[in-house]
Q: What sequence folds into this?
């Protein structure tokens, strides 16, 4: 990337947007700044770290007890490889790349271990507001082995780490292995398994019972909209508990209308997850 390209991207890639209740962070989902680009690009990690962005990478345990930075339980079709991540050693993924929207492998987005991807952050300047969510994926109920948890300790010393997951006990275990890491909880898997939790007041009680150490809750944006329509201020009630809300995943399209964004902004969400943060920034600014 040339100096001109860096300057252009620095000026055009937003990390937050001002709302009526204060700034709203725009988290780069899978490190994306544009919907069509490959996920987990190394240049986006570096850019966001220096701009002060909220960033997200997904991690899954491999057969040899490492964490690979991948979103899906299988390598294909989202990468140039094939096979179950949990059934392969990390070394067998060398030379693979994440694909962009055209299906092409991106050399700037190799399939890496967590330690490999984050190694440059140890010496890279970090803007004070920069943070990185490690979204812990659990496949088939298989908990990450102790060796994988130890592998995550490779990020010890990197500030601004947040461990988030549908699986709160496993997230707690991982966060405990990384000094200074914050804890996030995504209850939407529990909602899918317990339809009664679609009631926002019951969902709040569910979170309250599990809130020890949790600083951030990840909610599907439509769950927030539904709660607001029912007259229950779920996001505001979580703020009263000292917990911020991240609304995921908000991208341009039929489901993302001005009314939806207005609802999220007025509900006091503190973070919005997006694959195209620039588009969401412009849409909110135009409200």
A:
């Amino acid at each position: 990337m040339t100096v001109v390209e860096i300057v252009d991207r620095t000026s055009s890639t937003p990390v937050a947007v001002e709302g009526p209740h204060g700034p709203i962070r725009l988290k780069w989902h899978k490190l994306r700044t544009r919907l069509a680009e490959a996920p987990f690009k190394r240049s986006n990690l570096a850019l966001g770290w220096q701009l002060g962005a909220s960033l997200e990478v997904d991690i899954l345990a491999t057969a040899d007890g490492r964490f690979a930075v991948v979103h899906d339980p299988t390598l294909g079709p989202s990468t140039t490889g094939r096979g179950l991540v949990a059934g392969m050693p990390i070394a067998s993924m060398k030379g693979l790349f994440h694909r962009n929207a055209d299906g092409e492998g991106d050399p700037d987005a190799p399939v890496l271990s967590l330690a490999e991807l984050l190694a440059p952050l140890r010496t890279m300047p970090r803007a004070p507001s920069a943070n990185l969510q490690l979204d812990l994926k659990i496949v088939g109920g298989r908990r990450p082995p102790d060796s994988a948890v130890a592998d995550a300790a490779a990020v010890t010393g990197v500030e601004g780490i947040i461990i988030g997951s549908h699986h709160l006990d496993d997230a707690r275990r991982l966060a405990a292995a990384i000094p200074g890491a914050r804890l996030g909880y995504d209850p939407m898997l529990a909602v899918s398994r317990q339809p009664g939790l679609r009631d926002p007041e019951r969902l709040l009680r569910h979170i309250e019972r599990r809130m020890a150490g949790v600083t951030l809750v990840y909610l599907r944006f439509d769950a927030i909209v539904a709660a607001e329509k029912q007259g229950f201020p779920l996001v505001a009630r979580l703020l009263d508990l000292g917990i911020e809300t991240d609304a995921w995943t908000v991208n341009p399209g039929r489901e993302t209308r001005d009314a939806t964004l207005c609802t999220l902004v007025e509900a006091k969400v503190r973070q919005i997850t997006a694959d195209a943060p620039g588009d969401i920034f412009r849409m909110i600014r135009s409200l």
User: Anything to note?
Assistant: The radius of gyration is 18 Å. Confidence is low (pLDDT under 50) at residues 1-10. The first helix runs from residue 3 to 12. The domain at 25-285 is CATH 3.20.20.190 (TIM Barrel).
